Structure prediction request, 230 residues.
Amino acid sequence: AQSVAQPEDQVNVAEGNPLTVKCTYSVSGNPYLFWYVQYPNRGLQFLLKYITGDNLVKGSYGFEAEFNKSQTSFHLKKPSALVSDSALYFCAVTLPWGATNKLIFGTGTLLAVQP
Amino acid sequence: DGGITQSPKYLFRKEGQNVTLSCEQNLNHDAMYWYRQDPGQGLRLIYYSQIVNDFQKGDIAEGYSVSREKKESFPLTVTSAQKNPTAFYLCASSAPRQSMAGELFFGEGSRLTVL
Prediction:
């Protein structure tokens, strides 16, 4: 069965420092991988995705993520954190689109950026 | 502007009552989804529909029902059979284009509280 794990409930980082939010996945075949962000009492917003090609994908708001097939990971990164990046981040996985057309989400990681 | 509209934003219900959450989209998307969000559990799929007049159960469909009579609308009914309905409910849609595979567009959510 497909699954995705976000091992950290919360990540704290000082403004200006680099940030990493971790994600590992378990799925047979070649997965599609995603990151979404949620601000308080709002819906989720798509940040970036990996389907194929370059292992480093760039997304919205200066975020990027690195796909590592051998470690089955897809960690979210940003070189310099902003206070406004504070939010709940979700990693998600699916089999190639068209098979199920549905995402499986992780439990989320709360990112807190201190000024 | 195109988007997804969920209503009501907040809803209170007495035990034993059915309630219906509205989800409307003007993005011309074929697929629509309902997710439930609980603290520490991430998002769990309730139902999804890939085309009008067709829908499939997700991982936690018990106690819920849906209909898809129009492309724009995908209402969710939380029935009295749902044992723990208090949660934040999110509706989403996705475009059929392969280039946008997995990119879900979310509404702002509906928070249901059972008194």
